[in-house]
């Protein structure tokens, strides 16, 4: 006999794996937009919205998480990069997420890097991307944000600079995005850690990063109700650089850290080396970054005596990998590649596991 618990996952999970096999035979970027547009069309009907909500949305007071002054209905979010233009927030909320991070957004629209720029590493359950902050610009995102917010989902705005903006002027781009988005998002994420915009990661160095963060925090404090500002960091930072990040958390008065972005490392992959070399540059996400991401979370938590709020992201494909992030010191977690490979049932599995974890602590 199949238990109610098993039945809740058996049908959608196996349907998704069958669907994934078909979708994975097409170009990753094209099929991403096809899938999301199809989901948007499906969820225009009330019966399918109710079905998705029944299958994937978990409502339990145990899941409620208060951090950064915000109350999240559950601690499982969608990382930036999946919904770059804030176009699918309502649809994604029916997949069970407690919060959705949109972007990375830049002041002006930009095409990003030349295609092909998104690649699956199926053997590793990973993805390499060199998208390059492709987005329709912050003003278009605002038009989409005005129509969002079903199921009580919180929204984060991940902000960056345009490719053509030199690093010495980058603060102006971040400030423009911040001011434009302020009324439409619940928190902000400063992205200086993507490997796909030339020289962007140089902004992670202590001096330019301190200037950028202090400028944003100062502008934030001019509002009657400031919004949380988080910094997203790379998994490739040395311990010395992580020490600088911990120091900057105190001196700049930001509200938290997202650990981590994608990695430029290609170590210990199962995928054929020649295939990886042919793909070329880009940030690697998924299971290959899981261990390093968790180690970065643990380091920040240990060396700050647990004083820094952390969102853990990187290689979360299962309930256990999410719990590991929480045990390492994260308060919230985010999926991206794990959502692509495992589907919305993974969000529900993780939330169910967190309920049991919290009850047992």
Helical fraction equals 40-55%
Examine the secondary-structure arrangement and name the CATH architecture: Alpha-Beta Barrel
CATH C-level:
Alpha Beta
Total beta strands: 13
Largest sheet entry: 8 strands, parallel, barrel
Q: Largest sheet, order of strands side by side?
A: 3-4-7-8-9-10-12-13
**Tally of structural domains:** 1
CATH topology: TIM Barrel
> Number of DSSP helices?
13
Parts with pLDDT < 50 across at least 5 consecutive residues: 1-11
At the fourth level of CATH, the homologous superfamily is Aldolase class I
SS-based class: alpha/beta
Globally, the shape reads globular
Mean pLDDT: 92
Q: What distance separates the N and C termini?
A: 31 Å
Rounded Rg: 19 Å
Order of helices and strands: HHHEEEHEEEHEHEHEHEHEHEHEHH
Strand content: 15-25%
Short précis:
By secondary structure, the chain is an alpha/beta fold. The chain has one domain: TIM Barrel, CATH 3.20.20.70. It has 13 helices and 13 strands.
Describe this structure in words.
The protein has one domain (4-110, 133-262, 287-360): TIM Barrel (Alpha-Beta Barrel). The protein is 43% helix and 16% strand. The protein is built from 13 helices and 13 strands. An 8-stranded parallel barrel has the order 3-4-7-8-9-10-12-13, surrounded by 5 helices. A 3-stranded antiparallel sheet has the order 5-6-11, with no helix packed on it. Strands 1-2 form a two-stranded antiparallel ribbon. The radius of gyration is 19 Å and the shape is globular. It starts with a helix and ends with a helix.
């Amino acid at each position: 006999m199949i238990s109610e618990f098993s039945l809740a996952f058996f049908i959608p999970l196996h349907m998704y794996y069958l669907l994934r096999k078909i979708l994975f035979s097409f170009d990753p970027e094209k099929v991403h937009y096809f899938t999301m547009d199809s989901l948007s069309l499906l969820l225009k009907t009330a019966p399918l919205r109710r079905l998705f909500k029944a299958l994937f949305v978990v409502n339990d007071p145990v899941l409620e998480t208060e951090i950064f002054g915000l109350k999240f209905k559950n601690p499982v979010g969608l990382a930036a990069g999946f919904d770059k233009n804030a176009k699918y927030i309502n649809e994604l909320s029916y997949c069970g997420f407690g919060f959705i991070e949109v972007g990375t957004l830049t002041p002006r629209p930009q095409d990003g890097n030349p295609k092909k720029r998104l690649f699956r590493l199926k053997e590793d359950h990973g993805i390499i991307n060199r998208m390059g902050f492709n987005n329709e610009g912050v003003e278009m995102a605002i038009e989409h944000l005005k129509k969002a917010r079903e199921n009580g989902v919180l929204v984060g705005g991940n902000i960056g600079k345009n490719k053509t903006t030199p690093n010495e002027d980058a603060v102006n781009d971040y400030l423009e995005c911040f001011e434009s988005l302020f009324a439409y998002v619940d928190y902000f994420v400063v992205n200086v850690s993507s490997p796909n915009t030339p020289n962007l990661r140089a902004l992670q160095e202590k001096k330019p990063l301190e200037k950028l963060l202090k400028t944003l925090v100062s502008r934030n404090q001019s509002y009657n109700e400031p919004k949380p500002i988080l910094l997203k960091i790379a998994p490739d930072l040395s311990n010395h650089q992580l020490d600088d990040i911990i120091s900057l958390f105190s001196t700049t008065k930001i509200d938290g850290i997202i650990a981590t972005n994608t990695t430029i490392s290609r170590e210990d992959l199962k995928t054929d080396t020649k295939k990886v070399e042919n793909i070329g540059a880009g940030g690697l996400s998924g299971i290959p970054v899981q261990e390093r991401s968790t180690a970065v979370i643990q380091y920040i938590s240990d060396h700050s005596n647990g004083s820094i709020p952390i969102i853990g992201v990187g290689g979360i494909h299962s309930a256990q990998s999410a719990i590991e992030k929480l045990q390492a010191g994260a308060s919230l977690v985010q999926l991206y590649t794990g959502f692509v490979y495992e589907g919305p049932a993974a969000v529900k599995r993780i939330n169910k596991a967190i309920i049991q974890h919290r009850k047992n602590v």
